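[Meeting: bench + compute handoff]

Bench side (C.D.) handed over the final construct sequence. Compute side (W.E.) agreed to return the predicted structure before the next meeting so the bench team could plan truncations. Sequence as handed over:
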Amino acid sequence: MNIIDRKLIVLSLAAAAAMGVSAQESATGYFMENYNMKWQMNPAMGNRNNYVGFPGLGNLNVTANGNISPTDVVYPLGGKTVLFTNPGISAEEALGNFKNINRISQSAAIGVLQAGFKAFGGYNNVAINVRETSSFALPKSIFSLVKEGIGNKEYDIRDLHAKAEAYAEIAFNHSRDIKQVPGLRAGVSLKFLLPVGFAEADFNDLNLLLAEDTWKARSNARLRIGLDGIRYKTDINDRTGARYVSGVDTDDTKFGINGFGFGIDLGASYKWNDFNFSLAFTDLGAIRYNSVQEASTNGTKDFETAAHPIAIGDEGKSWDDFVDALSPLYELHDNGTVSSSTSLLGKMRVGVDYKFPYYDKLHFGLMNTTSLSSMFPSTEFRLSANVEPVKGVAVSVSGAAGTYGANYGFLLSLGNKGFNFLLGMDYAALKMDKNSIPLTSNVDVHLGINFPF
């Protein structure tokens, strides 16, 4: 039994980096007049027309981002492409590209049904969406361990987290002008969430002290899978007699609703002369899962030995003894079925829009988006220019800088009443080689087909 399968770790990290949570709507279009989905970023923002979204394509968003790029994991060497673990790549060069905490996120949102209409003294939106997110937080020390291998060094790999989640969302939104305060507009969105499943892995503590005369290790880990019908496979260590989780049994898995959740969005905007200020808090809430399978080390496990050298000619006995002693560090125990709650990845947005006084069809916007998640924190500032020279043709371009680096985006809106087509990206630049401008490997696509009336 291998303690660390280096090839598996490397391939997993490379695949994750190639995939590469930002907003699931177009941040570039936050200030665009002819963008019907602004209410999902700030529920106070209404639309000038009623509309119905094309089923499945009314609001389609796919986003992947991170503060590392594929070029941090793969390198050109001798006419070939190799992983950073290749001996031809020095540890100093390879590890110099990684951050203390390397974050990778991916999300997708599909607008199954979308509609907006003026009524009840304001503007209203109704939406049924399917959302999926996955996030990874990888400390630099794990890359050091993979690159350098078992050496005389301390590796502190705490705060390694991974999470994936999928759920359906039924959202109701209402916004209106506040007549008592001229220029003020407020809105709220209520979201009823129907979860399908989630998976979460946490290494709260994984410390390896590999000194010349002794090895010490400590671990505290937990794995949770919330999918109805799923169970862990267990096995018995034939050398120690301990039962541990050896895999996942999916034979009785049921892909249905596995709990219930609720979320709320709050937003406001205030117009003063040529400025329009806005503030919003979105995705405040949680999902409770009925059936969650938990496996963990059940607390912190410690290991210490002065007998780590592997003797030659003992037919592997010393290695087996070492693995047996170390097994409590990485063997998880099946804790059975538990109920569990997960928080939504909330965000705060603060924006200001300025209408150009000499050409009122042109305006500029500045927005900050900050994640409220303590596990996957991020912030981004985005400056945009928006113009609608004729009604039904609008363009927005933006530049951004933040946790995931610098980038630029665009959004094109064609059509007014009868038909509207949207296409854009918030992250249109890729870091393609070692000598390029240090932009991120973030990438996304925003697509919408709607029928305004």
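W.E. noted at the follow-up: The chain is about 10% helix and 55% strand. C.D. will use this when planning the next construct.
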